[in-house]
Amino acid sequence: MVLSRLFITILVLSLCTSVATAQDVNYGETYLIGTTWYFNQQNSTVGKLIARDALSGTHFVFTGKDEPDSELRGLDFNFYHDGGGDIAAQLENNIVHVEQERRIGYASMDLLRVEDSYRAVAFFNNSMRGAMAYDWDWGFGAFTIQYLASPIQRLPLVTKGCIDSNGWAHVVSGSHAMGQDVTFTLLFWHIEPNDDFTEWEPMNARVLESMTGLGHHVKASRESGHVGLVWQHNIVGVPPPEGWENTVAHGMNNDLYLLESEDGQEWDYDNPFNITRTIPSDHEREGHLAYGDTLRPFNDVDILYMGDVIHVVFSARGFWADPLMNEVPPVEGITVKESMIWHWDSDSDSLTLVGDGWYENEGDPSSIQSNVSRPSLGASEDGTMYCLFRKVTEDDMNLNQYCYGELVVSISEDQGITWSEPINLTGTNAQDHDEFDEYVDEAHPSLADVVDESLHLYYVLAPESDESPQHGLLSECRMTYQRVPVEDLPDVEDLELPREGFTYHNYPPLGVPDVSDQLPTSSEIVAVYPNPFNNRAEVSYNLMSTGEVQL
């Protein structure tokens, strides 16, 4: 039985009536897509929520709620096109509910090309199942919903999907058993449409592996049949060895894996490619080399195809494994603020720095956001690449010392080998405003894959709140669209590396003292010479790392 439902009635919502005008920004203009409550959307913005088509149409999805105490959340859709008149008026009139259910959310979207037109396809999950919803026509807002059955007794979470050049859908989800340890099972569906794309037949989901995070994504090339799936593979395994259970270190200790198909049909599931190839710690190496790699992919990942070449960007935090295995788990330290954003592509098989967030700040960035995080890729026809991400400056924070973010973009003109210094697109630092109600935070950004004359970015604009946690659970937020003309962007220098020759596999990335500068943390004389019974003296001491010792 095909579980689907067709919504013929278009329900126009009045979500825009009580919201102030959009904020002033450094570049471009902003528009209101809809309003939501921070708790709903910050739990949901984990995929790309905006798509720009070749007909100058722009499609949006987000997780909304009519009232903060309502049991139902809504997956909402909006649309405008350049030939439709005033953009703000179109967006005010075109917003619709795709679906309303309890615990709905974690959306992402892609476009299905049908002849010379495009249809929005949203991927999401509710409290029990993963789902995809496909529009009836270009910007029409009448969606058919196809539910996806899980082959195991787990609830799909963070459901992301794409449409390949043949019209097949590929959907990935990290499923979770409520009430159990925070681990996830990676599920992968392939869904075949009929000839007129009015019905879709899901194949049985494939169980790929167990994970500790939800940093997965799937993307298809617009020019070829290539489809790529990326996820975070735990290095020590799930379930973990003794001592790693229920620790932050276990959740962070990941490599980034890629599974790719040239046609979307044939997949070599047994041989994924390891993008990061983490070098393990080894106490027999000298000095700081004993730590091995001191970065780990964390939480965020985005994918973009340029022809047959797949490009991946991801966030990474600091991670120092214990070479001597004295700690439980054997990890000496991790970072929660300091972070970096990296790019990898299948052509060069190299990791290059996009964003440098390796600095201390006084505020709290929250548990899943770092100094730089949430990268999102787009590209223009001439091959120029743009990476949008959230950057926390050292002094931008609210009254509760939570960090506020700015949205910045880095540019690459050589297919990701080098990147520019970031350009601040928003410019809403709290220190530049005197009024409480002028404090805002840009969070959870998406950049449309297609960059034409403009960058098309989409994000949550959250107001100041005196509640805790950050913004309060029930802060009313603006889902904001910012359109930035490319010609307005300034020329900037290439990104300055932390030091000459700096790469992902440096030891360590930055901020750890050289072994020669370290003093023992404790010492004692174990056996004293001379005395009648000992012919030597033993000195015991502890160092923060292994290395050469001079007495």
Which helices and strands, and how do they pair?
Blueprint: E1 4-6, E2 29-37, H1 38-42, E3 50-52, E4 57-64, E5 73-81, H2 87-93, E6 96-101, E7 105-114, E8 117-125, E9 130-135, E10 143-148, E11 155-163, E12 169-176, E13 184-193, E14 200-202, E15 206-211, E16 217-220, E17 227-234, H3 248-252, E18 254-261, E19 273-274, E20 295-306, E21 309-321, E22 331-345, E23 351-357, E24 372-379, E25 385-391, E26 406-412, E27 423-424, E28 440-447, E29 454-463, E30 476-485, E31 522-527, E32 538-542
Antiparallel strand pairs: 1-10, 2-30, 3-4, 4-5, 5-6, 7-8, 8-9, 9-10, 11-12, 12-13, 13-14, 13-15, 16-17, 17-18, 18-19, 20-21, 21-22, 22-23, 24-25, 25-26, 26-27, 28-29, 29-30, 31-32
Describe the structure.
This protein is mainly beta. The protein has 3 domains: 1-148, no CATH class; 156-234 and 236-277; 285-442 and 460-508, no CATH class. The protein has 3 helices and 32 strands. The chain has helices at residues 38-42, 87-93, 248-252, and strands at 4-6, 29-37, 50-52, 57-64, 73-81, 96-101, 105-114, 117-125, 130-135, 143-148, 155-163, 169-176, 184-193, 200-202, 206-211, 217-220, 227-234, 254-261, 273-274, 295-306, 309-321, 331-345, 351-357, 372-379, 385-391, 406-412, 423-424, 440-447, 454-463, 476-485, 522-527, 538-542. A 5-stranded antiparallel sheet has the order 1-10-9-8-7, with no helix packed on it. Strands 11, 12, 13, 14 and 15 form a 5-stranded antiparallel sheet that branches. β22 (331-345) and β23 form a beta hairpin. The protein is globular. The model is unreliable at 1-21, 508-534 and 540-547 (pLDDT under 50).
